[in-house]
Design brief:
elongated, alpha+beta, seven-stranded antiparallel β-sheet
């Protein structure tokens, strides 16, 4: 087999030998057709005294094959991602009507909003939870003592520091954890009921009561 005498024009189809450049120059099929047309034309008009170089043609064909392989792989990955997304939506739909523990710091004095949680980055020898009202005033401080790493939950009895029932309203909480006098990283978790499930560019979303949404992957515990 003869080959291309001047490969510069063919190389430009691939961005000077870079397969990733196929995106900017059209689909893999377009590139293949342009390459083969150019190859046939150059073979027909080659100089008999200076035949084309087989090694160069082999190199260009290898690049063409790589472009096609990458395109096929991308198509397969996109199909797989679509399939996985559909599977996640189906799994997430089973959570509708269930309470889930997700990142957040809201809490209420009545069930089931009275459940709080936190995720520790490492074990702590002392954990306290401070509950505040909508104005930022401290309502109650809970001393939980030592806690192990991972997710922990605690329920607020709805009472203030002086033992009276806290009125209905919006409350928040913060978690303070220490180990040997050093602060321990933590993520506050709040309870929410799943009303519906949707999917967007960020993936599968759980739409909770109160018009809030969280990612399906953010669920730490299901009740």
């Amino acid at each position: 087999m003869s080959a291309i005498q001047d490969t510069s024009s063919v190389s430009s189809l691939f961005g000077a030998g870079t397969p990733a450049a196929s995106t900017a120059n059209g689909s893999a099929t377009d590139i293949q057709n342009r390459f083969l047309s150019l190859l046939v034309a150059q073979m027909k008009n080659q100089d008999p005294l200076n035949p084309l170089d087989n090694a160069q043609v082999t190199s260009q064909m290898a690049q063409l094959s790589t472009v096609q392989g990458i395109t096929n792989m991308n198509t397969s990955l996109q199909a797989l991602a679509t399939s996985l997304g559909a599977g996640q939506v189906s799994q997430a739909a089973s959570l509708i009507g269930r309470d889930v523990l997700v990142p957040g710091n809201t809490v209420g004095p009545a069930q089931p909003q009275d459940v709080m949680g936190f995720d520790l980055s490492r074990a702590a020898d002392d954990v306290t939870v401070s509950i505040k009202d909508a104005s930022g005033n401290l309502v109650r401080k809970l001393d939980l003592g030592p806690r192990d790493v991972d997710v922990s939950t605690v329920a607020w009895d709805g009472l203030t520091a002086n033992g009276t029932a806290a009125p209905a309203g919006a409350y928040s909480f913060t978690v303070n954890a220490v180990q040997g006098g050093q602060a321990v990283g933590n993520t506050a978790l709040s309870l929410g009921m799943v009303n519906s499930v949707s999917q967007n560019s960020q993936g599968v979303q759980l739409n909770l009561a109160g018009n809030t949404s969280v990612g399906y992957a953010d669920v730490r515990q299901i009740f």
